[in-house]
Amino acid sequence: MLHQMYRMNWKAWRALSEAERQRIGSAAAQGLMQMVTPAQKGDATVVYSMLGHKGDLMLVHLRQSVEELNRVELALAQLELHDYLELRHSYLSVVELGLYESSAKTYGALAAQDVAPFTPEWTKSIEETRARQAHAMASRLYPAIPETKYICFYPMDRKRGEEVNWYTESMADRQRMMHEHGMIGRRYADEVKQIISGSIGLDDWEWGVDLFAQDPVVFKKLIYEMRFDEVSAKFGLFGAFYVGVHLPVERLGAWLSGTL
Is 187 exposed, middle or buried (0-12, 13-18, 19+ CB in 10 A)? Predict the structure, then answer.
């Protein structure tokens, strides 16, 4: 998963003739359309018009590999419109699931059978369990970007300081806290869709969170309520928030003319 946040050089853009703007905008729309409707199932690119000073356009890409994401980056760089865009921020991550409860059950069952951790038998059982889970949760591991009007993206960490360290908490405590955290999210399931992606070793934060909704106020309600659960109040660190309005590619020309 790759997020790209661009700032548009409006001054340079307005300096072009109307004919040049039309030509460049049409070519960009054609190029983006190939990314928005990719040939491979599960791939996706969605464009958003951003609010605030952090950027003007946000592109969210889902692909099967980092090589394919790299090809998307290179294809975008070949568009003439790219000369008028400044990449202000990007974020690389991989879609993942939090499986605290199922993992605890699996580890507990193996311990009850006196299967020592990291032995060949233990490793085989873990891999078989993961394969079953991946098959059962394929729609969450390979999500479609929801067709909602608004997006809210932010990166986050779990604290790992000297006094408060998520990674020194026991599996049982982490499982309990994540269960309580998840119960809040479930209450908003009809209003907000989410994609959680992991970025440890891939980017500056540990996770990326994408929230999708038809009403942007629900982002505030959900995140505010989650501030009070233990996992966020005690262990959560949050990066910058990026909010955008869905921009269909066929409306790119209108956006470039400021008439959206």
Answer: exposed
